[in-house]
Amino acid sequence: MLAGCGRIDFDPLADAGGDGKAPADACAFGPWSQPELDLQLSTNNEEFGPALTADGLEVFFHSDRPGGMGSFDLFHATRGTQTQAWGAPTLVANVNSTASDGGAALTLDGRTMYFDSNRGGSTQLYVTTRPDRTSPFGAPALVPALVDVAGVTISSDGTEMFGSSSANMGDLVRVTGYDTATPVIEPLTSLNTPASEGYPTISSDGLTLYYSFEYDIARARRPAIGASFVAEGVEAALSSATSDDDAELSRDGTIFMQASVRTSGNDDIYVSTRSCQ
Predict the structure, then answer these.
(1) 20 to 30 A from 136, CA-CA: which of 12, 104, 114, 263?
(2) Backbone angles phi, psi at 14, to 5 degrees
(3) Over the stretch 100-114, which tens digit does the pLDDT of each residue have?
(4) If you write DSSP's letter for every residue of 151-198 in order, what string do you get?
């Protein structure tokens, strides 16, 4: 149902650029398609927070559907190619708790996953790893240096994490050294407003950031890694009159997944695509 560039063996760091400003060896992107309900991943319950592996063949998300362990749990689905429908979602082994777990974010190699959980009494960031893509994730560990960060996304080069400040929900933050004992957390002051911002997702070249702004999908760009982002407003093609947030941009830049209540009245996963030429 969903197609990327038709290249399963792409190099995300070389191939994926910002919106319409891809590197010379990559592609120019077309407009986003109308978001469509993903029937394989959505139910009459709530689904949020999709996170894709770099090849687009695995997705992680959280749901309060029956069969879980807590109020929200992390689920996982796979497919053989980007043009195939997802297989039946299954509960992620070893990771969930009797509390609420969600907000998955994957590193480029798909072997490390960060996620939010309130198993300790408040929402905090946890991390889990697996030795390879065919193995299950191990037991998660709290990330004590990042207890005030949630709803994260990881840059393709592994140098940056973006998320929200759980100490002041609604403020976007950038984290460097996120996998060390002394990470640096700084607010994205050029994007934060008195309104609500959160749930960022970053393009593979690190120059385009999509995020939730007052329950719409907004976009910002920066000229270089480390420079300030410039807000470009709401992305009309991805937003609706209802709630749209908790999104994921694929590493190749051609798939956009988000949670929305636009047709069903409860949050489901919707998908948009664009061409890569």
Answers:
(1) 12
(2) -85, -35
(3) 999 999 999 999 999
(4) EEEE-TTSSEEEEEETTSTT-EEEEESTTSSS-EEEE-TTT--SS-EE
Residue 257 β-bridge partners: 248, 271
Place of tokens 């949020």: 48
The pLDDT of residue 169 is 59
* CATH number of the domain encompassing residue 253: 2.115.10
pLDDT of residue 8: 26
Residue 266 pLDDT greater than 60, yes or no? yes
- Is residue 263 within 8 Å of 39, Cβ to Cβ? no
Q: Is residue 6 part of a domain?
A: no
State the pLDDT at residue 12: 38
Per-residue confidence (pLDDT) for residue 78, from 0 to 100: 98
Is 27 among the domain residues? yes
* 274: in domain: no
Provide the number of structural domains found in the chain: 1
Q: Which domain holds residue 90?
A: 12-265
Residue 109 phi/psi, 5-degree rounding, is -80, -5
Q: pTM for the full model?
A: 0.89
pLDDT band for position 119 (cuts 50, 70, 90)? very high
DSSP label at residue 196: -
Q: Is residue 145 part of a domain?
A: yes
